Amino acid sequence: MTTVNSRTTGRVLVVGGYGAVGSTVTDTLAEWLPGHVVPAGRDEVKARRLGGVRVDVGDPDGFREVLDELGDVSVVALCVEPEDAGLARICLERGIHLVDVGATHRLLDEVTSLHEMAAGAGATAVLSVGVAPGLTNLLARRVNDAVGGAERIDLTVLLGAGERHGTDAVRWTVAGLGEPVTARARRVPLPGFGVRTAHPFPFSDQHTLRRTLGVPEVTTRLCLDSRSLTASLFTLRRTGLLRGARGARQQQLLTRVFSRVHLGGDGFAVRADAYRGERHATLSLTGKGQSRATSLVAAHVVRTLFMQDVPAGVHHLDQMAALADLPEQLAAHGITAAD
Ligand SMILES: NC(=O)c1ccc[n+]([C@@H]2O[C@H](COP(=O)([O-])OP(=O)(O)OC[C@H]3O[C@@H](n4cnc5c(N)ncnc54)[C@H](OP(=O)(O)O)[C@@H]3O)[C@@H](O)[C@H]2O)c1
């Protein structure tokens, strides 16, 4: 297997570095890798105030110039979703590692197609970084192993409706309500939240895990801590009002409402269930603040890229042996396993 050497020099460019996810990535890495972190975003004043630089992921030429000017970026942590894989390509062809918290299957697939190029350039991209995808991938891998190769995996995600989720994450979630689904809702016990009705939702993990684990059927479902809000949202989805071009305006409206209204707590939970014949295995994790948890996962991945030899190429979190014990490492941050 090709490996890259550990990188103990160079800097981490945190794109989206003062957003809900990116700000904790920036702060955590500033503590772990002092002097190595450069936050970035479109607002030059905000970025410079934090010692960072202006970057717009929609401007590839500008991004190249920033990399040239900084000169020593060894890792880019992408904490905002770009339109396509252009920015990933720019990083990987220069041998710069990439950590991507994105959750859109199409985009992750586009980055995955850069595997050979990345491997040739000695760069590593880690995708499926966060809670879902992310922790769900790691739990899925464990329950799959526990049943000796699952025929089916069910993943469940509960998010706190009272958390101040970032605008980009809210936009992504609302857009997901406009996508068609075929699987059914399911009643699932979640640690600290009782039995909840969770609805199929287009998280990327269910697609990538079919390939990375070779499991034929994987479904991810979502619910919020507020039962009434969960019921209202998925009733709204069934009306079809959020679909297609017609639904774009409604989606914008809903994104604005969810960015301002916070009804509920900030706890989250993820659960994975694997089935093979009579065999069943389940694992759950729970904690406070999904943005914070996503940031901590991303920060751990970046630190691993800095400190350890890892395989070059494009990998999902569940394919990274060096990060297999991440759930245990997160216990120190209040993210704990539960039955
Ligand atoms: N894997 C997971 O479990 C998981 C969990 C949560 C979130 N996420 C993903 O993480 C991403 C960030 O979420 P968030 O909650 O942190 O959102 P957020 O609070 O809106 O943060 C986004 C950040 O990116 C910057 N930004 C926006 N557009 C940009 C552009 N074109 N170029 C450069 N920077 C730009 C924003 O600042 P400016 O507007 O000033 O540029 C802001 O700092 C989302 O894509 C979300 O889907 C993944």
In brief:
By secondary structure, the chain is α/β, with parallel strands linked by helices. The protein contains 13 helices and 16 strands. It folds into 2 domains: 3-131 and 291-338, Rossmann fold (3-Layer(aba) Sandwich), CATH 3.40.50.720; 142-289, Dihydrodipicolinate Reductase, domain 2 (2-Layer Sandwich).
Question: Which structural class do the helices and strands define?
Answer: alpha/beta
Oligomeric state of the chains? single chain
Question: Compute the gyration radius: what is it?
Answer: 19 Å
CATH class of the largest domain: Alpha Beta
Poorly predicted ranges (pLDDT <50, ≥5 residues)? none
CATH homologous superfamily heading of the largest domain = NAD(P)-binding Rossmann-like Domain
Helix-strand layout with pairing:
Blueprint lengths: L2 E2 L6 E5 L4 H13 L4 E5 L2 H6 L3 E2 L5 H11 L2 E6 L7 H8 L3 E4 L4 H8 L2 H7 L2 E4 L7 H12 L5 E8 L7 H11 L8 E5 L3 E7 L4 H8 L4 E8 L2 H13 L4 H17 L6 E10 L2 E10 L1 H18 L2 E2 L1 E4 L9 H5 L5 E3 L1
Parallel strand pairs: 2-3, 2-5, 3-4, 5-6, 6-7, 7-15, 8-11
Antiparallel strand pairs: 1-14, 8-12, 9-10, 10-11, 12-13, 13-16
Helix pairs in contact: 1-12, 8-11
The structure holds NADP nicotinamide-adenine-dinucleotide phosphate.
NADP nicotinamide-adenine-dinucleotide phosphate binds next to helix 1, helix 8 and helix 12.
Q: What does this 3D model show about the protein?
A:
This protein is of the alpha/beta class and 339 residues long. It folds into 2 domains: 3-131 and 291-338, NAD(P)-binding Rossmann-like Domain (Rossmann fold, 3-Layer(aba) Sandwich); 142-289, Dihydrodipicolinate Reductase, domain 2, CATH 3.30.360.10. It contains 13 helices and 16 strands. It has helices spanning 20-32, 44-49, 60-70, 86-93, 105-112, 115-121, 135-146, 167-177, 205-212, 227-239, 244-260, 290-307, 326-330; strands at residues 3-4, 11-15, 37-41, 53-54, 73-78, 97-100, 124-127, 152-159, 186-190, 194-200, 217-224, 267-276, 279-288, 310-311, 313-316, 336-338. It has a 7-stranded parallel β-sheet with strand order 4-3-2-5-6-7-15, sandwiched between helices. It has a 7-stranded mixed β-sheet with strand order 9-10-11-8-12-13-16. Strand 12 (267-276) and strand 13 (279-288) form a beta hairpin. The structure holds NADP nicotinamide-adenine-dinucleotide phosphate (NAP).
